[in-house]
Amino acid sequence: MTRKEQKEERRNAILMTGLTLFVKRGYYETKISDIASAVPMSTGLLFHYFESKEELLIELVKMGAAATKSTEKMADIPPTVFFESFLTRLFEYSKEQPWVFNMFVLMGQARRTGMPEEARKIALSASGVPETAKMIEKGQKEGVFRKGDPELLATCFWATVQGIMEEMALNENMQAPDPRWIVALLKE
What we know:
The protein is mainly α. It has two domains: 1-51, Homeodomain-like (Arc Repressor Mutant, subunit A); 54-184, Tetracycline Repressor, domain 2 (Orthogonal Bundle), CATH 1.10.357. The chain has helices at 3-25, 32-38, 43-49, 53-67, 79-96, 99-110, 117-125, 129-141, 150-170, 179-184. The radius of gyration is 18 Å and the shape is elongated.
């Protein structure tokens, strides 16, 4: 392994450890020394990767925000298929990569008042709602989704997904629900 690969691996370890600790303990209750100890590395070495705990949080929130853009790539798929396949892939990937559950929790936390303002702004700007609303509107025109405000329906869809992901983060034995159950919320 090259030095560059080692450095990237260590950076990812810091990110994933920080994510886990921020979710389990809370951002303000987690010390940078706690993260360094859990990686494990010295606190001084950790500061070579991230200048502060806030910088680490911001990087994690940016990662979470980037993931919300994945819904934009499937506009040509029928709406029901889009939502069912999206949820199936999300739940399967999250089971393989449990940090995804924690990312949902962290993004929910980062949106709250009292979090560092830059992280909060990024989290609030990251939303799958606009693209999801477009897909819901398409489904409404095709007669497969219920009438109503597409933005509100999209918000309810994402609130449901957020809640499921948070429950699955807390309970690793929880089985993912059938995506059709969640899509049924959108249907007539």
